[in-house]
Design a protein that fits this description.
OB fold (Dihydrolipoamide Acetyltransferase, E2P); homopentamer
Chain lengths: 112, 112, 112, 112, 112
């Protein structure tokens, strides 16, 4: 998935039937490239979101007949991309096979 | 989906059978890269459009037997890419989880 | 679909069984990047072609068991990429929704 | 598959239903681009991983209903990207068809 | 398909079940970008190969349950990328529709 910022809605009167009922959003990536995505989440201009592409993007609309190739998957909580990008991890090489991997969890209480 | 401008029709006498009845258009992205897309919408040179890629592009032709990987999904109303790209949203970080997301809507009356 | 120029055949004695009977071509894009595509059309070195990627590329070989991800879709008639790229359309923004779109057609007689 | 480094977890309170139970990770490629992937392996910040994209990424979660387009496929043992990138192979052209290919093996005892 | 050079094997003790029995190779493209591919062919460091991506890459392993998105499709015979890239075809525009296309063939005896 990729990280983008919502610029605003996209208005398209002449469009293919398979997109007729969908909210479309113009997104901008960190380099300024503009993209268009369907929005099942309900975003506002300025939100940082992650996007799901390909066939997963169709299913993410709750209906694979929606003819999108990019769907907003979620609004990122408290996103500060500059801080994240600079946060170079302390360990830059992986340990040997004896090392214990971290337990798998999506719990918000998990230490960042 | 991506945003491109229609340059004109593409003429191809020797082509694969799976594309025989389709209008093909040469498109140009904002960096000048040329692409080819099938056109179920009816576009003219100069139109700004968004394009749907991958298997969704095949279904967007109304017939998954059409062997395209890029289809024009719609003509963008009143598109001014320079204005859009510069319109940096006022909020650059997302609020906390208590914030209300905007209602989901593709209605043209929706505030931009 | 993308626009590439045929450089020549690709010779590959050790290859996967799913490609055994296919002509392979080395292609070059406008930036000089080299690609490999299956060729159901019959091209020569120097031809400008458009290519179909993804699962559509498999079906374009007339047999989805052919394990390609890029297939030549057609030889472009009278292609002059420099002229096309410079031909900036006169209209750079789209008209309103009341404007008539051009009729959809792939007929060679269509005005460019 | 591509090679990325884990930056940390991604927190997303508002997300699509198809991702509700999955751990999400922010990854960084060697050029600093940020990505988001689902993590079925259990990684820590700093780990170098390879990622699987497209529909294979959905199946890699053990459940194709998970609406991801990028999944962590494994933690690379003892990864030192700078050393690898500089290790230019001694042979820069392929031998003729009479040459014996190396036996196919994923055994760790295989000579590097 | 794309053209890459084999750097060496990839060791991954912690990996997803869907890749357990596959040889993994680190590849390098002509710009130095590192990639990971499954290898059903049996390659050595230094070999120039072409790679198949997407769902075709899964089928190319002989088993669509293998969760790869990039598979080595073949070892290129006598590959000299610099020579190929410089070999600009003599004809830079396509002839008219009356021109005979070259016969379609993958025979090694075909004139380059």
């Amino acid at each position: 998935m990729e990280i983008n910022q919502v610029v605003g809605p996209l208005y398209c009167t002449h469009r293919i039937p398979g997109l007729e009922h969908c909210a479309l959003r113009v997104l901008k990536d960190r380099k300024g490239k503009l993209l268009v995505a369907t929005d099942p989440v309900g975003t506002r201009p300025g939100n940082w979101v992650f996007t799901v592409s390909g066939s997963a993007g169709r299913y993410a609309m709750g209906n694979p007949d929606i003819l999108t190739d990019l769907t907003i998957g979620g609004i990122i909580d408290d996103w500060a991309p500059e801080t994240i990008a600079q946060a170079a991890p302390a360990t830059t090489s992986n340990g040997g096979p004896g090392e214990q991997p971290a337990p798998q969890s999506s719990d918000r209480a998990q230490a960042a």
